[in-house]
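WARN no homologs supplied; continuing
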Amino acid sequence: MLAGIYGMNFEFMPELRWRYGYFATLALMAMLAGALGWYFRRRGWL
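OK structure emitted
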């Protein structure tokens, strides 16, 4: 996930222009991973 987001374009990375962009990006990735883990556990895939 990190390589896919940060490996594309260094000009438009959120932490370069917004003070809390780095933390917001990490929080979004953590929430997405948590939501997918919850979904997979609920479906019995984990």
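The first helix runs from residue 2 to 6.
OK
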